[in-house]
Amino acid sequence: MYRIIFFISLFLYFYCEISLIIMIGSTIGAFGVIVSMIIISIVGIWLIRLQGAMTAFNIQKQIQVGTFTVKELTAPIIMLIAGILFLIPGFLSDILAVLLIVPFTRKILQNLVLDLLFSKFISANYRQQSNRSDDTILDVEFERSDDKQDK
Predict the structure, then answer these.
(1) 133 in a structural domain
(2) Based on the structure, what is the number of domains in the chain?
(3) Can you tell me the distance from the alpha carbon of 85 to that of 24, in angstroms, rounded to the nearest whole number?
């Protein structure tokens, strides 16, 4: 089922991409489309390098402070996807890449992806635990220590 949805989505993406190229090409001409795609790709790669450097600096700063989280780990992956989208010729892929670069939309996408991954992980972990055949009961005791005592 997922394969069918994937192939239909891929077909719709290429259909929209080619339709957009033809529509813009009929307005500005074939040479204008080729030049604009090259310029957009160059500017896009420059933006990726700039945002990538800022992301690396922020990650390094957060590691030094000790506040590094999983959310910061997804930023370089999203930048890589945006860079690949900039290299793919077409206007729709460039629009998607710009949406991945903009910090506001990138944070929304990070939250969506992390929520999806964590919900899949938690549901898979719950299914694994609920499929246990033994009725083992664990009796556990713990102590809570304050941060003041640790220093």
Answers:
(1) no
(2) 1
(3) 19
Q: Can you tell me whether residue 132 is helix, strand or coil?
A: coil
Question: Token digits for 71?
Answer: 């959310």
Amino acid identity at 60: Q
How far is the C-alpha of 121 from the C-alpha of 77, rounded, in Å? 19
Residue 116 structure tokens = 């999806």
| Residue 21, domain member (yes or no) | yes
Residue 46's Cβ-side half-sphere holds a number of Cα atoms within 13 Å equal to 6
| Cα distance between residue 120 and residue 137, in whole Å | 26
Domain assignment of residue 61, given as a range: 2-128
Encoded tokens for 134: 């033994």
Residue at 86 is within a domain: yes
Is position 89 within any domain? Answer: yes
Angle at 48 between CA 13 and CA 33, to 5 degrees: 50
pTM metric for this prediction: 0.65
pLDDT per residue over 5-32, tens digit each?
A: 999 999 999 999 999 999 999 999 989 9
- Distance separating alpha carbons of residues 122 and 100, to the nearest angstrom: 27
Q: What angle do CA 76, 77, 82 make, to 5 degrees?
A: 95
